[in-house]
């Protein structure tokens, strides 16, 4: 069956085109590869690149809003983002290679929800919210499981809103070929408390409650020492065993806290 291609001029038009097994096309860094491998065969592609205004970055006093079509490279290069949330700019700069950063988008990354992607750790760790054409979804409710999110079939991500934290940092132990995270940890000290989000270690990004509790008692690198992580639900594959990932989580968290404290 031939795949139809659509390039709508508005978010509303894009949403109307999401019928059947139609798929949204943002940067295409995951979807195009899946199609080439025969893992996806959508009846139509709805390309978001023709919609004006979806790639904007706006920094306010206590919030950074990033349009869904903003590329990783543009976030990494933004002086305003680097000043407001340095950890977010640093995380974006470490995604993939130059080509991936030049094409990949924050909205595409979140909608795909790859278990080893970096942006989910930023969104969950910083307590962000995902804005769609229909509603605003808190990070704690957005990520559901392996490649699964709270998005409805006809819903389009339009922006991500990040509250500015008191302190934050991201550390990643990357797979050298793909540059995805074997384990990545975002640590943030926010007005609502300490958040520790882990990517690469499980089927989906998750918050690490034992480390959050230790860092709530004292936000210091040494607070991570001796914290035990349950490996029973962690990934175990050719890149690293579950026990190895369990060991890496507090190690990377300790490094992130040290970086956040500067």
Question: How does this model look, in words?
Answer:
It is a single chain. This protein has 262 residues and is an alpha+beta fold. It folds into 2 domains: 1-51, Uridine Diphospho-n-acetylenolpyruvylglucosamine Reductase, domain 2; 53-261, Uridine Diphospho-n-acetylenolpyruvylglucosamine Reductase, domain 3. 32% of the residues lie in helices and 24% in strands. The mean pLDDT is 95.
Task: Annotate the secondary structure layout.
Layout (H helix, E strand, L loop, with lengths): L3 E3 L4 H6 L6 E3 L5 H6 L7 E4 L9 E3 L3 E5 L4 H6 L1 H6 L1 H8 L4 H6 L2 H7 L6 H7 L3 E4 L3 E3 H4 E3 L2 E2 L7 E7 L3 E8 L6 E10 L2 E7 L6 E2 L1 H9 L24 H20 L1
Label the overall shape.
Answer: globular
Q: Name the structural class.
A: alpha+beta
What is the first-to-last residue Cα distance?
A: 56 Å
**Kindly state the mean pLDDT as a whole number?**
95
Helix proportion: 25-40%
Give the CATH class of the largest domain.
Alpha Beta
Give the number of DSSP strands.
14
Summed up, the domain count is: 2
Query: What is the percentage of strand-forming residues?
Result: 15-25%
Radius of gyration, CA atoms, in whole angstroms: 18 Å
The description of the largest β-sheet is: 5 strands, antiparallel
Count up the helices.
11
Outline of the structure:
This protein is 32% helix and 24% strand.
What attributes does this structure have?
262 residues; alpha+beta; Uridine Diphospho-n-acetylenolpyruvylglucosamine Reductase, domain 2; Uridine Diphospho-n-acetylenolpyruvylglucosamine Reductase, domain 3; 2 domains; 5-stranded antiparallel sheet; 4-stranded antiparallel sheet; 11 helices; 32% helix; globular
